[in-house]
Structures are given as structure tokens and as C-alpha cells.
């Protein structure tokens, strides 16, 4: 009886041990200790301009742990890619540029990874409301594209495929008309 | 079809449908050109059917819509060249995929499917059952025939403006600010340009440049 109990306990204990770091990560994400942020405010009273730092309750609920960045400590299996628009836009300014590492609190590796992902997201057109107006979308950059991982833009190679003049044009397209007999 | 030996009515009808010409619908929106080509080619040749045999003409019709929204990997729109050759002198041409796509939004889809059908004598007959449309519009008779919607080969990616405010609010915050964080640091700023070298004058600001320009204009007047 006792043995039976012991054996039934063992898997649950090991499971708990495996879940512990994940639990900590979740706790870290959801712990409700609010941090104050500051905002510069200027008020003009006659000839005097008063510049003061106002305290603002920011919506960040997490505290920075020393020497570890928020993406590295995130023990949930998250490999940020260009598709994770809601994660990437937390590290961005209004105009779509990436905040520096001093402000994002990321380690060097993750900062570069996020920068590459943001650039890929811009190229894939995932931030239409957060780009500069002169972002280049001419030529081949107009069409849809996707990425497999964040280092894809450094692996360039030209492919040459056989094309054919044989083409069945059943229905009318933009530039061509179906020949009618 | 079933392990129990009793054929259900659903499976019986599905088997009958194998012998008929089915019409499949494929949405090319955000799908990879070549993965889509492989999948459509399998259905055009009837290779998805258990009754398939190369000499059995059991291929299906495939309707591909939204061809203009098809995607390629990375910079492949520029770096994929299609080689056209009529076999006459000066008739060779290498055309990048995006230029073909710009001229006719169905042409690269056709080429990828034609390539995926393999180099054999049957592919000309198989590809006659392909119907390509640049957008969602199609003739009525095509729409009436469609009996199956094929699953996409790639997951669709959502743009940032397609998320609702609720989803945004429910999403956890990952950024860890310093305790003395100032929100104004996050404001965008213009490109400050290159740092001036030692002994070099810094580049003129906009106001200075405008002043210099005005001065240049007024100089001839003084004469």
C-alpha cells in the first residue's frame, strides 16, 4: 500500500519540478508590482517655463531581474519571429524603429534578434500603420513574402528555373485579354 | 475503407466521388509559390486518390483564387529568374519572377504548377483542368462546380492593424523598463546623421542651410 503510494507520487513530483521554471516565468509576467515611469512636462507661467518630471503609472507589471533579459528569462518556449507582431511592437517606437538595448532591457543576442525580426516584419508589410511614409515598396517589394527564420536575409542565392511559353489563358487578367473567335 | 468491414454511407459517397471529376478550391493568399504548386499538381494528376494509376485519367479540377496575393520566400521575387528560350538566336531571356507576376498575376502560379507536374507527356492534359484567377472573382459555372476547399499550405500571418484593441490589451507585456524610465525617450526622432570627424565642421542645420541659400540668392543683387 505504502509502496503503491510512493510510486504514484514520483511522476507527479517530477512533473512539478519540470513545471516550476515555467510557473516562475508566468509569475514574473503577471506579478502585479507596478513600476513608476516618468514623463517630462513643460508649463509656461508668464515668463517662466517650468520643466518637471511627472510620475506616470506605466502598464508594465514586471520588474527587471539582474543580468537577464525578458526574452531569455521567458522559459515558455517562445522563439520570437516576424509573425509575432504584438511582441515586436512593444520594442518599437511610433515610427517603426527599434528602441535601443538600454531601453528594451534585452541582452545583446536577443536585441539583435528582435531588430532582425522587426525589419523582416516591415519588409513583409506587417506594420502598415507604423512605418515611415517613404518606406520603399517599389518593384518586387510590393508582393507578399515570408521568412523561415531571422537570419534568412543573409542567405541570398539566385535561382534560375526553366520557364515555358506554353500557357493556357482561360480567363481574362489585368494585362491580357482572352482571344475570342 | 473501414476496419469493421461495414462501409458507412459517408465513405461510400466519398468513394463514388473519387471516380467523378471533383472541383477543388485553393486560396493562394500568402501561400508559398512552390509549395502551392506541388500540392495543386498532386490534385491535378489525381495522385491523392487511392485508385490512382498513371494510365487512369482520374485527375481533378483545381481552382486557384487570389493568385496576385501569392508569396515567395525572402528576396526570391527578385532572385528567382525564369529562363525562356524559343530555340532561335537572340531569343533567350531571363525574367525575374516579380516582373512576370506584375504583367500577369497568374503566370508564375501556372509555371510552378506546370513544373511540379513533372516532365512527362501527361502534364499538358492535366494542366488543362487548372483554373487560375487573380482575385476572388470567378465565373458562375466555376463557382457552382466547386465541391471541396483545400487546406492552405502555410498559416496566414496577421498584420498589426488586424488585431483588435481587446486582443492587444490581453497580450502580456514583455518589456522590462528601468526604474527611472522616462516615456519621452521612446519618442521617434529624426536621423542625426554621421558624427563629424575631428577638426571637421558639423553639417549645417536646416535653418543654417536655408540662410546660406538665401544669402547666395541675394549676393548677385548687391552687384
From TrEMBL, chain A:
The keyword Ribonucleoprotein applies. Pfam families: Ribosomal_S18. The keyword Transferase does not apply. Signal peptide: none annotated. GO terms for cellular component: mitochondrial small ribosomal subunit. SUPFAM superfamilies: Ribosomal protein S18. It comes from the Eukaryota. One of its GO terms (biological process) is translation. GO terms for molecular function: small ribosomal subunit rRNA binding; structural constituent of ribosome. InterPro entries: Ribosomal_bS18 (IPR001648), Ribosomal_bS18_sf (IPR036870). Keywords: Ribonucleoprotein, Ribosomal protein. This is Uncharacterized protein.
Automatic annotation (TrEMBL), chain B:
Keywords: Ribonucleoprotein, Ribosomal protein. It comes from the Eukaryota. The keyword Ribonucleoprotein applies. One of its GO terms (biological process) is negative regulation of translation. One of its GO terms (cellular component) is ribosome. GO terms for molecular function: mRNA binding; structural constituent of ribosome. Residues 184-223 are annotated as: Disordered. InterPro entries: Ribosomal_uL13, Ribosomal_uL13_sf. Residues 206-223 have a biased composition (Low complexity). PANTHER family: LARGE RIBOSOMAL SUBUNIT PROTEIN UL13M, RIBOSOMAL PROTEIN L13. Belongs to the universal ribosomal protein uL13 family. This is Uncharacterized protein. It comes from Pristionchus pacificus (Parasitic nematode worm).
